[in-house]
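User: Reviewer 2 asked us to show a designed sequence for the structure in our supplementary figure. I'm pasting the structure tokens here. Could you produce the per-position amino acids so we can include them in the response letter?
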């Protein structure tokens, strides 16, 4: 009798279809783990993938690694959970809701429960109370805790102002290299400012908070939220758009500097092409 393609059993004396060491390409990030790890949670997506008998049905990249089209940065926490079924996150982890979505995709219901906030919907999802799940208690205790939480939020809004309790202070530096053409009689052409890329320097969590999906993290994808980076850049090239996002998040410009050099002159005209590097420093209290 023929076995189905997704059969997970192995006949006596038959070699398993997968190697002991598994190489994964998750959204462009490479992970190397053991076969026992990816099959440690029964009925999960990875368990389904690596329990099937026909290995040829799985997608691979150009180097033969098994490919999964998901968030490569957040997958590190998925893999950590599958090693020992425990959730350990950095302090002030800003990607909790996105990680919960990844846990749902990989069909890890226990991890989804650990990531689900245990507080009332009136409270902020990003509060520190979400970092650890409280024990189940009686309805009276839940009511008292909710009243205390609402009182603390009201006091904070009076002493600090609206929305300030959820904002962290810090610096963000915006830098770009631009070029412009200077012709005869100091006349510049219409494309005097040409911005190739806008770079972002600062704490990872602040940069993600301000720029969200418009932030390109491909040059530094595994940077923890509490660490600093100078390798992010934006997916757009309009400085004013970056300034608007910073202003909307409560940042104010506190310093700027710029340098310029004459790169070369055009062979057939007197126009000179100048290049410059400019930085703007923003701060939020």
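Assistant: Here is a per-position design you can include in the supplement:
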């Amino acid at each position: 009798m023929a076995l189905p393609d997704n059969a997970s059993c192995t006949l006596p004396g038959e070699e398993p279809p997968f190697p002991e060491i598994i190489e994964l390409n998750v959204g462009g990030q490479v992970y190397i783990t053991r076969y026992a790890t990816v099959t440690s949670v029964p009925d999960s997506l990875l368990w389904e993938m690596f329990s099937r008998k026909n290995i040829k049905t799985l997608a691979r990249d150009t180097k033969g690694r098994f490919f999964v089209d998901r968030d490569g940065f957040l997958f590190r926490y998925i893999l950590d959970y599958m090693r020992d079924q425990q959730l350990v996150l950095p302090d002030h982890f800003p990607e909790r809701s996105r990680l919960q979505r990844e846990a749902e995709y990989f069909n890890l219901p226990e991890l989804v429960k650990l990531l689900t906030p245990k507080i009332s919907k009136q409270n902020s999802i990003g509060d520190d109370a979400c970092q650890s799940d409280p024990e189940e208690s009686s309805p009276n205790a839940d009511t008292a805790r909710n009243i205390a939480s609402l009182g603390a939020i009201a006091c904070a809004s009076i002493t600090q102002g609206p929305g300030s309790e959820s904002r962290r202070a810090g610096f963000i530096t915006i830098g770009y290299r631009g070029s412009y053409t200077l012709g005869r009689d100091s006349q510049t052409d219409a494309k005097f400012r040409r911005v190739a890329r806008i770079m972002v320097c600062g704490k990872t969590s602040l940069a993600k908070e301000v720029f969200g999906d418009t932030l390109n993290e491909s040059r530094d994808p595994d940077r923890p939220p509490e660490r600093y980076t100078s390798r992010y850049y934006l997916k757009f090239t309009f400085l004013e758009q970056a300034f608007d996002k910073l202003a909307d998040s409560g940042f104010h410009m506190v310093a700027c500097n710029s340098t310029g050099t004459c790169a070369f002159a055009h062979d057939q005209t007197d126009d000179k092409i100048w290049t410059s590097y400019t930085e703007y420093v923003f701060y939020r209290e």
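For the response letter, you might also mention the following. The longest strand covers residues 252-265. The chain has two domains: 21-115, 170-183+192-284.
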